[in-house]
Amino acid sequence: MAKAAKGKPEACDLLVRNAHVLTMDKKRTIIPDGAVAVTGRNIVAVGRDQDLARRFRPHRTIDAGGAPVHPGYIDLHYHATVHIISKLITDAPAGSRDAGPWVAQRYTRFHNVADDEDDYAAALLCGLEMALNGFTAVMDPGTAFEPDILAEAMEAVGMRATVADAYLMDFKGPQLSNIKRTPVSRKRAFGELGKQLWRNRDPHALVRGHVGIYGMGSQTVELTEAAKELADKNKVPFTMHQSMCIDDAEFDERRFGRSAFVHWQEKDLLGPNCVFVHMNVLRDDDIAPIVESGMTTVWVPGNSLFYGTRSEVPNRIPEIYRKGGNVAFGIDVCKTWTFGHNTLLAYYIGREEGQYLSAGDLLEIQTIKGARAMGLEKSIGSLETGKRADIVIRTNAAPQLHPIFEIEKRVALQSLTGSVDTVMVDGRIIVRHGRHTLLDENVVYERAKRSAENLLRKADL
Ligand SMILES: [Zn+2]
Prior knowledge:
nine-stranded mixed β-sheet
């Protein structure tokens, strides 16, 4: 809380007033009559409206009208350059036991015809969609053929992102191993590992780099060890896919002779900077290594529902969260869900698994836990003095938010991201009154339409 003013008011760039502030600090402090002061890139005070109004002389004021104000949402797994492709994969009933291979084949087909313009159009549309839904940071898992193209799009949107090199695989796994631009190759995988880390030299870079390999049966233990070691040395996250569907989980179990996380623990490959994605298919003995290592489980709740893995094995991620494991959200790709749906999908999975997650838990997973997974918990993920100003201001002109009571539930489960009015990243306003301030939205849509037509023609599906 801000101290009461003494003497002359201080200058600040922006004062967000009349805000129902969900700080997402350690105590999940909520300030119903709150305000947030911003100068440059940083939050300089969070507190009661009357205190901050007395203390500051702002250059600009935004009146939130009593609406919720919270940290930007953080997504730990989005294949940004696949955004348009994911929307072109035809929906199909879940006929077989495992739809994973079928979907992967479709992706491979589109991947093999996509060019740089398709990737840029996809990343730009994705960034725009995320920003308008109150997302301020995203981790791309390392599937952009040209990370520079992805970085350029995210910078145009004004969003934070972290990137890695594309599809690093040195072992023929069960999925996506036939992509022409990224052949399965030991030489390529080891050669490109960590090539995006140069981005971290600038402490203010919006787009950073991490170490990523594709995973999910497509890597040797040796490549996994090299990736983890490099990530440790550079103090960055190490990410890969793991145990998404029955086919890849069983593939790993067969080759390791035990469940995946028991194997990774024995190889000393788990630690707080590990950000492993999916983990829908876990065995009993996987749980302790996951929780004890301090690693992050990136949860894509739509996938376990879409692929029907819960008819084979329970989803253990709500349990991992409740046992103290770090859990963050990822959208992965927009199959039949999109940005802002995760909190609701996860809520119902938690209930069905008998592992209740409150709206506050889900907001934590969507914000501060995501920041921790990105290695940025000191600078983003909550509204606290000294952190970067990555802020979402809702509008109260949204019936789903009313009555303003049990505010976390209204935000996380009922208005979802439909009431986002203003979004700030690093102190810069990128969305105001629901419109992007830097991009011409219609140009982005036109570009996406052209790319979709080209992709469908080229893929000839
Ligand atoms: Zn993925």
